[in-house]
Design goal:
Belongs to the carbon-nitrogen hydrolase superfamily. BTD/VNN family. This is CN hydrolase domain-containing protein. Pfam families: CN_hydrolase, Vanin_C. It comes from Falco tinnunculus. 18% of the residues lie in helices and 32% in strands. It has seven helices and 23 strands. The strands form four sheets. Strands 5-4-3-2-1-12 form a six-stranded mixed β-sheet.
Length: 497
């Protein structure tokens, strides 16, 4: 008996899908770059001096690109500020800027370098991509003239943008993104009048791109993933690590898991500013990462990723983040709670006084539940369960709900929440959940020495963050980091420009 036409069509489609999944991967690279910085100056340098510095940095990046190509990489991401550094004024950064056109112009700077005026940086980046047959992602500065007919035009007659560019293996400019959420020190740049949601298609999936501080906000980060359905996010960053929740490797890997996408994160490397931490992250955890506060050198990372992670057999089902926490009664009364600060946010804490147990701590609308068992209770280490439900207002303003199990800096409870990099206590099990008012929750597990724990924990459909087995290393923190984007102030009031 011959199968019906619909069944035959379905079988052919299923076979084609399986074949595509079997080979649908790509090799990604990120390079953490120890940027060669310009000398401090109050006056702009000449264009030739600016280009000389940028060429020194591009010499290093070109070496990393060649090495990545030799190892089979299809794309490489380099860091924010990776070509000229940071801490400029509007005036002193100007010699480093170029006019970057809309990619719709179909331009290959390597073969047509003067089409849009002098563009030596774009020309060289384009040639790096073309000569090595690889996608190259870099961060440079864009300049756009304006005049009095534009009420928003700066007094110096130009807009200046922190800009990501992407060149394809032919050297063609295929993406340009102007950073929307500027960090507090980026007074040399303007933000675009409207947020840009930049995507482009590749043979290995749909890609999106944004920069550093953008990852904490709805636009463009959530829009790219939830609305435009990108498979992979490219993420140049200059990330200063802040324990216990916002180290680069910790938060970026958690964001990729929470959003269900690949994230290629390339950080700058500067130990004096606590800048380190790059990685290639998939929805099921870090494929590879790098965190080093001792060496002053750059580092290349390479790993294989699924081109379409949502179609992967390993793709996780949707999580109802508050389902479990709302279904149970409080594990404990709040008669022993105390408060403490984490990155200037006032948390409510309760101490883990026993080797194992069940605890609850609440703040406003958020209750956090923890079940745990330590491998052994030490007298010289204190752990707490903490909750925060409120507006964070330090380097920007954004609304958070956080449940966290964390180690205190010392046995003095007043130190709970202060940065800690080392621990000695292992846990045989943990299960953390919370009554979150958002679907955007990012699961973090951080071990002794700022190490990740890929494959050692899982997120259940009911919102519990659980250990699979005992922790292989001493524990610094287990955290559910929730963002309530709908409570944020309108841009630009939420940032510090």
């Amino acid at each position: 008996m011959l199968p019906s036409q619909p069944l035959l069509h379905a079988a052919v489609f299923a076979l084609a899908a399986l074949q595509a999944l079997a080979s649908d991967t790509f090799i990604a690279a990120v390079y953490e770059h120890a940027v060669i910085l310009p000398d401090a100056t109050d006056e702009p340098v000449s264009p030739d001096e600016a280009l000389a510095l940028m060429n020194r940095n591009m010499d290093v990046l070109e070496g990393a690109i060649k090495e990545a190509t030799q190892q089979g990489a299809h794309i490489i991401v380099t860091p924010e500020d990776g070509i000229y550094g940071w801490l400029f004024t509007r005036e002193t950064i100007y010699p480093y800027l170029e006019d970057i056109p809309d990619p719709a112009v179909n331009w290959i700077p390597c073969t047509d370098p003067t089409r849009y005026g002098p563009a030596p940086v774009q020309e060289r980046l384009s040639c790096m991509a073309r000569n090595n047959s690889i996608y190259v992602v870099a961060n440079i500065g864009d300049k756009k003239p304006c005049n009095s007919s534009d009420p928003g035009c700066p007094s110096d007659g130009r807009y200046q943008y922190n800009t990501d560019v992407v060149f394809d293996p032919e050297g063609k400019l295929v993406a340009r993104y102007h950073k929307y959420n500027l960090f507090m020190s980026e007074t040399q740049f303007n933000y675009p009048k409207e947020p840009e949601a930049i995507t482009f298609e590749t043979p290995f999936g749909k890609f999106g791109i944004f920069t550093c501080f953008d990852i904490l906000f709805r636009e463009p980060a959530v829009v790219l993933v939830s609305e435009l359905q990108v498979d992979t996010v490219l993420f140049p960053t200059a990330w200063m690590n802040v324990l216990p929740f916002l180290t680069a490797v910790e938060f970026h890997s958690a964001w990729a898991m929470g959003m269900g996408v690949n994230l290629l994160s390339a950080n700058t490397h500067n130990i004096s500013l606590a800048m380190t931490g790059s990685g290639i992250y998939a929805p099921d955890g870090a494929r590879t990462y790098y965190y080093n506060m001792k060496s002053g050198d750059g580092h290349l990372l390479i790993a294989e990723l699924d081109s379409h992670p949502r179609l992967s057999p390993a793709s996780s089902p949707a999580v109802s983040w508050s389902s479990y926490a709302l279904s149970i009664k409080r594990f404990s009364l709040n008669d022993r709670d105390f408060s403490g600060l984490i990155f200037h946010d006032r948390f409510t804490f309760t101490e883990l006084t026993k080797p194992e147990g069940n605890l609850t701590v609440c703040q406003k609308d958020l209750c956090c539940h923890l079940s745990y068992k330590m491998a052994g209770k030490r007298e010289d280490e204190v752990y707490v369960l903490g909750a925060f439900d409120g507006l964070h207002v330090v380097e920007g303003q954004y609304y958070l709900q956080i449940c966290t199990l964390l180690k205190c800096k010392s046995t003095d409870r007043n130190t709970c929440g202060q940065p800690v990099e080392t621990a000695q206590t292992k846990f045989e099990m943990f299960s953390l959940s919370g009554t979150f008012g958002t679907n955007y929750v990012f699961p973090e597990v951080l071990y002794n020495g700022v190490q990740l724990a890929p494959g050692e924990f899982e997120v259940l459909c009911d919102g519990r963050l659980k250990s699979k087995h005992g922790t292989s290393k001493p524990l610094i923190t287990v955290t559910l980091f929730g963002r309530l984007y709908e409570k944020d102030l309108p841009h630009p009031l939420r940032t510090s420009q």
